[in-house]
Amino acid sequence: MGKGRTGRRSLHRPHGPDMEGRPPRSTFWQGIAKKAQEQPKHRFGNLYELLNEAYLRECWSDIRKDAASGVDHVSAEAYEQHLEENIHDLVERLKGKRSRAKLVKRHDIPKGNGQYRPLGIPAVEDKLLQRAVARILEAIYAQDFLRCSYGYRPQVGALDAVDKLTIKLQFGRYHFVVEADIKGFFDNIQHDWLIQMLQERLEDGAVLRLIRTWLQAGVLETDGQVIHPVTGTPQGGVISPIVANVYLHYALEWGADLIASPQPQPSGRSWHKKASGPLTRRSANKALHLTAYSLRSSLAPASGGR
After folding, report:
1. What whole-number distance in Å separates Cα of residue 124 and Cα of residue 72?
2. Angle at 270 between CA 139 and CA 12, to 5 degrees
3. Alpha-carbon gap, residue 35 to 22, rounded angstroms
4. Neighbour-count burial for 46-77, b at 16+ CB within 10 Å, e otherwise
5. Is the whole-model pTM more than 0.85?
6. Which residue, among 132, 131, 164, has the nearest Cα to 146 in the 3D structure?
7. CB atoms within 10 A of CB 230
8. Average pLDDT over residues 208-220
C-alpha cells in the first residue's frame, strides 16, 4: 500500500463509471454512490427491492456470453434465448424468498509452477444475480476503499498501481518495494467476519442472506464429490472480488489499529471498538505508514543511496 498524497485530497475515489467505463445506467446506482460518499456511516437498507426485472435485464449486459456454464450446463447463450421469461421467473422467486444458489462447479487452472488454482464457476443465473448485487456493493464501497487499493476495482487495475509506484520510487521518498502475498486468501475468508464487516454498511437482511447463501453454496469437485465450504469465497464467483475487497479493507483497517491495542471482545456490531474509542481510518493509515517507515528505515543502505 502506497503512502497517500500530501494536502487535503481525499484518500477515497469518488463514485464514477461502472466496470466497463460507461456512465452508470441506473439512476439509483448514482444515488447510492452519492449517499455513501456524503454519509460514511450510513447503513443501507431496502436494497433487496432493487433487484427487479429492469435492473437484472440491465445487468445482463455485464455477463460474459462466452464464459463456461455451471453445473446445470445452461450457457449464457441458451439463457439469453428466453431472457425475459427467465428474468421474470427469477424475480418471482426473489419476491417469494425462494431463490436458491446452485452448486458451484470447480475447475482447476494450472498456475505454471506445477500447482493449480481452483476456480468456482457459478450457474449463469447465479452469475446474473451476483452481478446485480455486486454493482450495488461497488457503488457503496467505492467511496470507502483507500486510493492505494487497486485489485479487482472498477476503473483501476495493476497497471495503475505500477504507474503510481514508478512515480513514488522515482520522485518520492521510497527506495524499496516489498512484495507480499496472502496465501490462500480467497479460500480462507471467514464467513461470519465478512457478514459483520458488510453490516457496517448494509442494513438489509435479505441481501446479506443472499450473500451468505453464495458463500456457503456447495462445490461440485472434479471427481464428482460435493463439498460444503465453511470458509472462503470461490475464485471465479462474480460476487467474490467485491466481498474479498471488503474483507481485506476492514481487516487491514481494523487490524492496523489493533497492532498496539488490546484484543477487543466481540459484541454485536461494536465488536471492533475499544475502550479508547471507535476505530478510525486515520489511525489505521498511521499504523500502516509507521510500518512502511520502519521497513524503509531498516532496509535503507547505510550510505543513504538508492
Report:
1. 9
2. 30
3. 20
4. ebbebbeeebbebbbebbeeeeebbbeeebbe
5. no
6. 164
7. 10
8. 96
